[in-house]
UniProtKB/TrEMBL annotation:
Keyword Transport among record annotations: no
Keyword Cell membrane among record annotations: no
Annotated ranges, domain Phosphogluconate dehydrogenase NAD-binding putative C-terminal: 189-259
Annotated 6-phosphogluconate dehydrogenase NADP-binding domain residues: 7-143
Database matches in Pfam families: DUF1932, NAD_binding_2
The organism's place on the tree of life at top rank: Bacteria
UniProt KW keywords: Oxidoreductase
Molecular function, one GO term: NADP binding
Highest classification ranks of the organism: Bacteria, Pseudomonadati, Pseudomonadota, Alphaproteobacteria, Sphingomonadales
Active site: 168
Name listed for the protein in its UniProt record: 3-hydroxyisobutyrate dehydrogenase-like beta-hydroxyacid dehydrogenase
InterPro entries, per database record: 6-PGluconate_DH-like_C_sf, 6PGD_dom2, 6PGDH_NADP-bd, HIBADH-related, NAD(P)-bd_dom_sf, Pgluconate_DH_NAD-bd_C
């Protein structure tokens, strides 16, 4: 039996995952200014376009929600009343675990299955080779169906909705944070006319350590020198301000360095031990 797969949302991810014969719906077809362009996107990918979410998901076996983060919950609300009993609603959107759990309640109340899926890398150029993490009561079945569709790197994150999105969201704090910090640093370097020198200095001081080793080292330095480094970063912020660059990331660095420095902790050996010192078990967890 041929499985009916539907894409809700047809932006970069939808187009990357599409194949001829699939049906898609994107709310941009509801807007006259964007309708023609979106219909052209459907045609280029060889997919059929539905006129509404209700029309798209009616009778579908597998629904992939690929909308923007601010529309993830709304998409679940719009689709849920029209999902067939036992249909799988796979939420691939980059949203918080709490948002996914809220969407899951809506979908399961309608008699369908909700699956938390995290897309763990850019969809281009990987397309169906992009790594996916899958979580929820139907994770194993959903993973099998994703593989059958053509996704080549699918792993189970856990049995509960939120297990996959927790990994995605927390990882993003580092990945997107580095991107934002890169922009802040290099905009200031450009404004000061020292871009090449700053990049050369960074290259010379970059550590070859893996993430666990680097994280252990970073926490050690913050616990020992956080107060001094916060004071230094105040001067960094002043430097950026003098250049006309808003030190948004730098202000956060100041606060985090100062908070860890104020703990007055002599760092224990090892990353796990340091984390336990910084964030000891709460009473309800220790009981």
């Amino acid at each position: 039996m041929t499985e009916t797969l539907i894409l809700i949302g047809f932006g970069e991810a939808g187009a990357a995952f599409a194949r001829p014969g699939v049906t898609a719906f994107d709310r941009k077809t509801d807007v006259s200014a964007t309708r023609a362009a979106k219909l052209a996107d459907y045609a280029a990918a060889g997919v059929a376009g539905a006129d509404s979410a209700a029309e798209a998901v009616a009778g579908a076996d597998l629904v992939l929600s690929l909308v923007t983060a601010d529309q993830a919950l709304a998409a679940a609300e719009q689709c849920a009343p029209f999902l067939a009993p036992g249909a799988m609603f796979l939420d691939l959107n980059s949203v918080a675990p709490a948002t996914k759990r809220a969407a899951a309640r809506i979908v399961t109340a309608a008699g369908a299955h909700y699956v938390d899926v995290a897309v763990m890398a850019p969809v281009l150029p990987a397309r169906l080779a992009v790594p996916l993490l899958v979580a929820g009561e139907q994770a194993d079945a959903a993973a099998a169906r994703l593989r059958a569709y053509g996704f080549g790197t699918v792993a189970i994150a856990g049995p509960s909705v939120g297990d996959a999105s927790s990994i995605k969201m927390i990882r993003s704090a580092m990945v997107k944070g580095i991107e934002a910090l890169t922009a802040e640093c290099l905009l200031a370097a450009h404004r000061a006319g020292v871009t090449d020198a700053v990049l050369a200095s960074l290259a010379a001081s970059s550590s070859p350590a893996d993430w666990s080793v680097q994280a252990d080292y970073n926490l050690d330095r913050m616990l020992v020198h956080g107060l001094r480094r916060a004071a230094e970063m105040e001067e960094v912020a002043r430097t950026l301000e003098d250049l006309g660059i808003d030190p948004a990331m730098t202000r956060g660095i100041i606060a985090r360095q100062r908070a860890l420095g104020r703990l007055g902790i002599v760092p224990a050996a090892g990353l796990a031990a340091k984390l336990a010192q910084i964030d000891p078990p709460r009473a309800e967890e220790a009981a």
